[in-house]
Design a protein that fits this description.
Elements: H1 8-37, E1 45-52, E2 58-66, E3 69-80, E4 83-89, E5 95-98, H2 100-109, H3 117-127, E6 132-137, E7 143-149, E8 153-160, E9 167-175, H4 176-179, H5 186-223, H6 227-248, H7 251-254
Helix pairs in contact: 5-6
Length: 256
């Protein structure tokens, strides 16, 4: 079962192993739907099912009949300190995460009046089952910026290939209308979004460092640690915090 205390590797492993079980369930459901829908003049349809896996993870199964062929996908969802998150797995075994910030941007920019986060997830996955990601190199080795074309717009995030399990995180969303409000500047706008994404990552890193530094400073008052030692701790944090944070507290990275 997915829990808040899981580190990045544990979370990805849980999603990967449970996705196989959820996919088998979706496959058998798709066969039942196919048998039923083929009796109708127009067999095309979209069905969703809630599924609780043997590992006690909650999944949304989306099954679509196009002509006479069924297609299915599965998405798990879970809560952390920031809100409702979701994840799925691609054919090449990349774990894809959707942050609560991503869904809030989707709701805001699509002008949706859906208050229930779970219903918002269902609405999103019914309308955006497929995505085509493109990657662009970032300043950090092994980290690539991602923008993916979906039905309702463009998803923006990053791909991390430096860890044990390759994972992709979508952090924000823009509509087609936002991209094409001025077609001559579309490419410039994409570059602007990528730049902002990099800046946000740097700001998040800076905030984590300052939070840990503040915590050390408070402890120093009790233990009478000298300011010189504090500065040494701060420099070490700037050097090592990124990898350590990914390894021990991935939840801050999955939410903005």
């Amino acid at each position: 079962m997915i829990t808040k205390t899981m580190n990045l590797d544990e979370l990805c492993k849980e999603v990967l192993t449970d996705h196989e079980i959820a996919s088998r369930k979706a496959f058998y459901q798709s066969l039942k739907i196919k048998k039923k829908q083929l009796k109708k003049k127009n067999p095309s349809c979209i069905k969703t099912f809630d599924y609780l896996s043997p590992k006690h993870n909650k999944w949304i199964l989306v099954i679509e009949m196009i002509d006479k062929s069924p297609y299915f996908s599965s998405y798990t969802y879970y809560y952390n300190d920031f809100g409702l998150q979701a994840a799925t797995v691609t054919k090449n075994k990349t774990v894809v995460h959707f942050t609560c910030h991503y869904f809030s941007r989707y709701k805001e920019r699509m002008n949706l009046d859906i208050k229930d986060p779970y219903k918002l997830l269902r609405h999103y996955f019914i309308n955006n089952r497929l995505f085509a990601p493109l990657t662009s190199k970032s300043k950090k080795p092994g980290i690539e910026l991602v923008f993916a074309k979906i039905h309702d717009g463009i998803s923006l995030g990053y791909l991390d290939i430096t860890k044990k399990y390759t994972h992709m995180v979508f952090k924000t969303f823009v509509t087609h209308k936002m991209l094409h409000s001025n077609q001559n500047r579309t490419s410039k706008f994409i570059q602007f979004l990528i730049q902002k994404l990099e800046e946000r990552g740097n700001q998040d890193f800076q905030r984590w460092v300052e939070q840990d530094y503040t915590s050390l400073k408070e402890k120093a008052k009790q233990k009478s640690i000298q300011n010189k030692q504090l500065e040494e701790y701060k420099n070490k944090l700037y050097t090592h915090l990124n990898d350590e944070r990914l390894r021990t507290r991935p939840w801050n990275i999955f939410s903005a």
